[in-house]
Amino acid sequence: MAASDISATLQHDVPPGTFVLSRRLSPLPLARLPVLVTLIALGVRGVTDSDIWGHMLFGINLLETRALPVADPYSFTSSQPWINHEWFSDVLFGFAYSHGGLVLLTVLRSLSLASALFVVNRGLRSVSWPLRDLLMSVIVVSSLPLLGAVRPQIFSIPLYALTLVALSNDAVWLPAVFVVWANIHGGWLLGFGAVVVRTVCAPTRKRLFVLAGCVLATLLTPYGIALWTSLAEAIMRGWNGVVEWEPVWRLSSGKQPMIIWLLLASALCWAAYRQTSAEAWKWVWTACVAIASLRARRHVPFFAATEVLLILSSIRVRGVDLSKLAWSPQAAFVLAIPVAVACYLAATILTPTVSCLPAVDPPMRPEASAVRFIRTENLRGNVLTWFDWGLYAIWQVGDQMRVSIDNRRETVYSAQTVADHWRFYSGGAPDYPDRIGADYVWLPVTLPPVEQLQAQHWHVVYRGPRSTILSRVDRPLTVGQPNAGGQCFPEP
How many CA atoms lie within 13 A of 399 on its CB side? Predict the structure, then answer.
């Protein structure tokens, strides 16, 4: 113990049985640990969605070839250069999975969320406890739909929070954030919008310099200016038919985003009524993100982060000052109990994740016997497949077949190709497989083209509970069986 600490101890009336480690240490970190551990566990609990197959495969292939493909090697209908604006995320995912399976993948995702909480905690350092942890919980709970999926969007949460904190402190190092972000995920556009609003609302020479630096930083990618043009085209085309880009008021896709948005909007109105002391640019940008999240549920987590870091961080309420409490064996024991409980809960939550990433909606995946059929029969060629099955097919049988479409639609496929597929799915273009030169068609059994193609001399060669494979060449019909436990990544 330092002499200053001993002196400080002697100057206070310390009860017998109390030991003081240092005046700099307090029970606060230990008291906050249960909440933080639980939040990370809830956020990292993973699921398998339709994108995970592509990100894993692309990352593994990038590590093997050490080169970014310009022409798409996975599809036979792609008609434009492939601008993979998430290439570095794919590398991180591929490396983690290749070297440590789901365990290291969980560690990577935990580090991403932990870094987000660290940044948010710094941004809320003037907010008293336990309100600070409550606000951090709001961000995590609002972000659960983004955090659960193993997709590059999980890295945008900490980078966006870091951007807002940097803007609040007029940090000149902000362009360095965009150097990383532009190579990880297209969500950097949202952060760039915050930089623009901050600069326009209160321009200074320093802020203009930072804005210019952020622009140049986004050009430091393998694609240069093509990254801008690719993302601009994607935005203009939109994401019609993709649930996460639908308005929050469309309750057919789930009520949770709408409920969260209403709660966030109510808190924002309350802060405005209380005349919370936040700078003008913070109110302007928060309103912009609120509108954006109303139009696309994908932005709701960013609405939560924006409101918490820019508006609610100005709230001043009296909290619990644990720093004035002295350490004692009794206090340490009492605080250790919730920590142990939180660690147990976290282990319970994460244990399935490190052994299985369950499917979000198993009926939206074809049965494992369809993959076995393609492998056993050694089917090779071009397959016209259902949109959500494209990346799944690339992962499972991409060495034998090239797909007609997948979830990379705005970065690989023309708008006409996407429109033609949806017209075919609805039964409006039964001749489409012939026009694009498909050798096989792999679709959900319930789609109209299944019967239409049989009338045009296509042959059903496989039929399962959820999917059907049709071929130009007739062969004995194989009847598929329901999945027997194959509902986890990377099982068929």
Answer: 6
